[in-house]
Amino acid sequence: MWEVDKQSVKALGLLVLICISCFVSDPLPDTELAAVEQRQKRRKYPEYAAMLNKTKALLDEFYFEHNKLLADLLGDKRFLW
What is the pTM of this model? Predict the structure, then answer.
């Protein structure tokens, strides 16, 4: 079973919303995205152990090009982490 930390779940949820809003004719306004983020913060998630540094480095390297493409497509440098 996959173990996912709170930040990853939050980032994935926001990423999905941003991607969806890019493909619909009427994107979500910033106020709506902020409301979704607030709901995410209120959710209770079980605590998991931190990811190993080696695992994080491997995933960062693997997803770097994908994140770069996403940042270019969206015009948003926040995805260059």
Answer: 0.40
